[in-house]
Design brief:
Elements lengths: L6 E5 L4 H12 L3 E8 L6 H12 L4 E6 L33 H16 L3 E3 L15 H13 L2 H4 L5 E3 L7 H10 L24 H13 L15
Parallel strand pairs: 1-2, 1-4, 2-3, 4-5
Helix pairs in contact: 1-6, 6-7
Length: 232
């Protein structure tokens, strides 16, 4: 592997967390290659946001991979028959996409091996994480072990590292970190029901966590809300 340049693959959804993760990786001196997925999600505006963010933050390459997770359904983010909740729910919410982070990290691992990069960044969070099981520390640790067992590079002595720098931060702390690094969060799209222009609904779980984060951080919320939203 090429060790002369510190390179990383950064999963970039176009949302607040992944954008902060990209800014952190860049601040740590990595040449970042960003990876997004068109996986059948209803909120496609995040893909356009990911392109803009990657350009603005100077990513070396930006790749969008198509995966048809909608064909297996099981999530309000991919199945038109399941509505995105407009209020908090108990347990693992219907916005959980089965195996999503496992699939995403697997493809990021493949691209990292091709690029000669040993580092992969993902913006998962175990504090304000909506109850998703693939956002926990145990999952990240297990996938890192898998990465070093299941790759040619790992067998030949390289060591892959899965970085989750937001894992133990509150949403307010994530926002403070991004602001310190000069991020414009107005570029990001977090809403599960964003319209084609990327405007937020203001009522889904992602919107609620985002708005509470800005309030707790005492930083003005730059989110664009669509007409009819309670915050428009």
């Amino acid at each position: 592997m090429n060790t002369t340049v510190k390179q990383a693959v950064v999963l970039t959804s176009g949302g607040l967390d992944s954008t902060t993760c990209l800014a952190i990786a860049r601040d740590q001196g990595y040449r970042c290659h960003t990876l997004a997925f068109d996986y059948g999600q209803k909120h496609k505006a995040e893909l356009d946001a990911g392109i803009r963010i990657s350009r603005a933050l100077g990513a070396g390459d930006h790749k969008i991979i198509r995966i048809d997770l909608a064909s297996i359904g099981g999530s309000a983010l991919t199945d038109p028959k399941i509505a995105v909740p407009d209020h908090p729910t108990r347990g693992i919410p219907v916005t959980y996409v089965p195996a999503r982070n496992t699939v995403f990290l697997s493809l990021a691992l493949g691209w990292a091996e091709v690029l000669g990069a040993c580092d992969i960044f993902i913006g998962v969070n175990a504090v304000d994480y909506s109850g998703y099981p693939d956002c926990r520390p145990a999952f990240i640790e297990a996938f890192q072990d898998l990465a070093n067992l299941a790759t040619k590079a790992g067998v030949e002595g390289e060591r892959f590292r899965i970085h989750a720098p937001l894992l133990h931060l509150s949403k307010a702390d994530i926002i403070r970190t991004g602001v310190r690094l000069g991020l414009d969060y107005g570029m990001t799209v977090s809403c599960y029901s964003a319209d084609e222009e990327g405007r937020a609904c203001g009522v889904c779980d992602a919107c609620r966590l985002r708005r509470e984060g800005f309030r707790e951080a005492e930083i003005p919320d730059p989110t664009r809300y669509r007409p009819g939203s309670p915050f428009a």
